[in-house]
Automatic annotation (TrEMBL):
Record-annotated membrane-spanning stretches: 20-39, 51-72, 84-107, 113-133, 145-165, 241-263, 269-293, 305-325, 331-351
GO cellular component: plasma membrane
Species of provenance: Marchantia polymorpha
Protein name: WAT1-related protein
Name of one Pfam family that matches: EamA
Assigned protein family: Belongs to the drug/metabolite transporter (DMT) superfamily. Plant drug/metabolite exporter (P-DME) (TC 2.A.7.4) family.
Keywords per UniProt: Membrane, Transmembrane, Transmembrane helix
Domain annotation EamA: ranges: 24-158, 211-349
């Protein structure tokens, strides 16, 4: 009876306290991104340059989170060493500059449902990078290792399916039916650096949709690298909001320099439409300011795999909103690819759960295992653990 009460207590503990706050934060992040995709796609279709959009977005985000970080994390910030500064620089380039640029380019050439579905590949890239960096461990001879390997392969196949195969339209209308080649080139130039990269890819026989898909794959890799690099950075600089502000500052500086070099007309920096202004404000306040801060905070407490596990919800939110508001088409290839990615994702999560149970039973010593309930053990420790780990410890606030 006491054992049963203990199990009930453990289940209730997962629904309250720190664990509930982390999971509620991640749910809020994915809903925010779902709305962001729809608004951003509308702005890109309206001719807003991707660098202009990203610069304004990050300036708005900085104006909101810098004061918040300054007043709320005075006791958490540590001196910036050379190694910490280099990590922050890399985080700003991968997680802000490249991630935003590649995503906006991919969104401009595809649609909201496809862009959101491709984000499901982020957990796979996150997991692969974690394995290479020895943050995750694969035991190939055990069921948990096999589940992880099969899950990774399924998700990779799903990503390539979405990139290379469109298939028939299940819902919505074909956007190319009423669009001329000249109109497509105008859209390409408005979202690319004077159409240079688009022209280069088109010369190799790659169409607009495939260019967008490749940009989104690269975006997923950048996000996977960003999530994993946050772990060593947060150990040295345990102030998540301040870290987010510094990363956005680095990324915004790179975006501004690139935008000034590539956007030749001053009129491109003027947002004439009220809808575009609303999209930029929402992107800065929610997609950058709120979401990046919440993700960094959740990553500090639950690990990169927990953060990535919630990303499939973007497909549900943005796909529904895009279909209802923008009448975006839904292709058969997107459905097949997304299903494979989701299958792979949950095989990986299941494998991690098996690994965690084996770790508790066999006292395995692994660097870190990001499971759906990692809030029972602090991710950031004062000293390296050797031997058995205390899974009943309370996370630091």
């Amino acid at each position: 009876m006491a054992v049963e009460r203990g199990k009930v207590g453990d289940m209730w503990g997962c629904l309250t306290g720190e664990s509930a706050r982390v999971q509620l934060a991640l749910l809020t992040v994915q809903l925010g991104y779902g709305i962001y995709y729809v608004l951003t796609k509308s702005a890109m279709s309206g001719g807003v340059n991707q660098f202009v959009f990203a610069v304004y977005r990050d300036v708005i985000a900085l104006s909101l989170i810098v004061p918040l970080a300054y007043f709320t994390e005075k006791d958490k910030r540590t001196p910036l060493t050379l190694q910490t500064s280099l990590l922050i620089f890399v985080l700003g380039i991968t997680g802000i500059f490249l991630q935003q640029t590649l995503f906006l380019a991919g969104l401009a050439f595809t649609n909201t449902a496809f862009a959101a579905a491709m984000q499901n590949a982020i957990p796979v890239f996150t997991f692969l990078i974690a394995v290479v960096c020895k943050i995750e461990v694969i035991r190939f001879s055990k069921p948990d290792g096999l589940a992880k390997v099969v899950g990774i392969l399924a998700a990779v196949v799903g990503s390539f399916t979405m990139c290379l195969y469109k298939g028939t339209i299940l819902f919505g209308d074909d956007p190319a039916a009423g669009t001329t080649q000249g109109e497509q080139e105008d859209v390409a130039r408005s979202s690319d650096t004077d159409g240079f990269l688009t022209t280069l890819f088109l010369g190799f026989g790659i169409d607009y949709w495939q260019i967008g898909a490749l940009c989104l794959v690269a975006n997923c890799f950048c996000m996977g690298a960003y999530s994993n690099l946050q772990i060593p950075t947060l150990r040295r600089f345990p102030a998540p909001i301040s870290l987010t502000a510094l990363c956005i500052c680095v990324g915004a500086s790179a975006l501004l320099a690139t935008g000034l070099a590539s956007v030749s007309q001053a009129s491109d920096w003027v947002l004439s439409s009220s809808g575009n202004i609303v999209s930029v404000i929402y992107a800065g306040a929610i997609a950058s300011g709120l979401n990046f801060s919440l993700q960094t905070w959740a990553n500090q407490r639950g690990g990169p795999v927990l953060v990535a596990a919630y990303i499939p919800l973007q497909t549900v939110f943005s796909g529904f909103l895009g279909l209802m508001i923008l009448d975006d088409p839904l292709y058969l290839g997107s459905v097949i690819g997304a299903a494979l990615i989701l299958l792979g994702l949950y095989l990986v999560i299941w494998g991690q759960s098996l690994h965690r149970m084996a770790q508790e039973k066999e006292l395995l010593c692994t660097p870190f295992s990001g499971v759906l309930d990692d809030t029972k053990e602090p991710l950031l420790k004062e000293s390296k653990s050797a031997g058995t780990s205390n899974h009943g410890s309370v996370p630091r606030s």
